[in-house]
Design a protein that fits this description.
homodimer; 214 residues; alpha/beta; Maf protein; two-stranded antiparallel ribbon; 6 strands; 22% strand; elongated
C-alpha cells in the first residue's frame, strides 16, 4: 500500500484529501511526526509553497534513521487559496493569513471572510468572479532508484593471448564475425561493438530523452 | 551540460566510457573525489554491484555540503565481465579477481588470462563460446524533484456568509452552476467539484500509473 504523509496540521484539508483519495492509500499527517521541522511558506506562488513544504519534509524524513517507522512513500503538500478578480487575484497565497496583514500567522476564518466582504462591498455582481486554486506537490521519500542499462557482446576464447590494446580479457576474446581479438581490433572497432558500447548507447538515449523534456 | 561521475578508478573503463559517450557530457571520476568511500562489490550479479556502487556514491554526494563543487548530476557505475559457457558462466562477476580466488582484490590481467587459458586448455573450438557483459547503473545525485498537480474551481463571491460546512472562504464562494455556497453544498458535493478534488484526481492518476509499472 502506498502511504502518503499529508504535510499539514489543518484537519479540514486532511479530511478532504482522505475523503477524495480514499483507499487504497495509507495516510499519515504531521501529527504523526511531532519532531518534523516547521516549514515557512514564504514563496509567492502556490506551487512554490507546496514544493518547498513537500521537499523539506521529504529531505527530513530521508535523513532520519533509515527504516524508522512510520515511513511514508511520499510527502504530499497542498497549497491553495482564493483568487478574486476584482482584487487582482488577492488574497491568493495569503488566503489563510489575509486579515492579519503582514503577520506570518494564519487568521481565524471569520476575520478573513469579514475582510473580504468589506473590500468587495461596492463590487457589483458581474465583477464578483473568483476561483479557488489548489496546487499539490508530491515528493518521494526514498532514495532515487538506480536505472539499469545492459549490453552484451558474443564471441569466442582463443588458445593464446594476442594484441596489446584494451584491457582485461581483451587479448583472449574474439567477437562474433571477426578473426582478431578485442586487443588486436583496436579502440575504435571495440568501442563500436563492445558490451560497454551497447550499454552506453541505451544510457545515452535515456539521457537525451531526459534533457529534451520541457 | 550534464555531468557524470564515472564511479571507477579503472583508467581503461574511464577512457572507453568517455570515448563512447563523448560530448555533450562533462566527466568526473573517483580521482576527483579522494574522500569518497570505497564501495565493496560483493553482490553476485553485475546489476547488484553496479546499483550498489552508484547508489552509495550518490548518497554520499547528496549528504556532502549542498552546492559544494564538483557536483555531478549523475553517478554512473559500470560492472562488467566475461561469461564463458564451458565454465558455466565463470568468471562472471569475479572477472577482475579471478586469479586471486577468494581474495577480495583485483588480480593482474595477465594472471587472470593465464588462469582462464589453463582451465580451457582441453576445450574444443566449438565449445569456447563466451560473451562480455556490461551493466551500467545510473543514479541522480540531486534531490527528487517535486511533481506538481493543480486544480481550479470557478465561481462568485456572495454578499454575506452562508452555510456551516467546509472551512476558510467556503461560506462566501458559490461555484459556477450552483446557487449555494461551498459551505451549504456539503462535503460530498464540494469534494466532487472543488479545486482540491481536481488536483487530487491528477495525483491519483499519476500514482495509479506508478503502481502498475513492472
Amino acid at each position: 500500500m502506498t502511504t502518503l504523509l499529508i504535510a499539514t496540521r489543518n484537519a479540514h484539508k486532511v479530511g478532504e484529501i482522505q475523503a477524495i483519495l480514499g483507499a487504497p492509500f495509507g495516510f499519515l499527517t504531521l501529527n504523526d511526526f511531532p519532531a518534523a521541522p516547521k516549514v515557512v511558506e514564504d514563496a509567492n506562488t502556490f506551487a512554490g509553497n507546496a514544493t518547498k513544504k513537500a521537499g523539506e519534509l521529504a529531505r527530513w524524513l530521508r535523513n532520519r534513521n533509515a527504516g524508522r517507522a512510520p515511513a511514508p512513500d511520499y510527502v504530499l503538500a497542498d497549497d491553495s487559496g482564493l483568487e478574486v478578480d476584482a482584487l487582482n487575484g488577492a488574497p491568493g497565497v495569503y488566503s489563510a493569513r489575509f486579515a492579519g496583514g503582514e503577520r506570518d500567522e494564519n487568521s481565524p476564518d471569520a476575520e478573513n471572510n469579514a475582510k473580504l466582504l468589506r473590500l468587495l462591498q461596492d463590487v457589483p455582481p458581474e465583477r464578483r468572479t473568483a476561483r479557488f486554486r489548489c496546487v499539490i506537490a508530491l515528493v518521494p521519500v526514498g532514495e532515487h532508484p538506480a536505472r539499469i542499462f545492459d549490453g552484451a557482446c558474443e564471441g569466442r576464447i582463443q588458445w593464446a593471448a594476442s594484441g596489446h590494446g584494451g584491457f582485461g580479457y581483451d587479448p583472449l576474446f574474439v567477437p562474433e564475425g571477426f578473426v582478431q581479438s578485442f586487443a588486436e581490433l583496436g579502440e575504435e572497432v571495440k568501442n563500436r561493438l563492445s558490451h560497454r558500447a551497447r550499454a552506453l548507447a541505451k544510457l545515452k538515449a535515456f539521457l537525451d530523452g531526459t534533457r529534451s523534456e520541457p
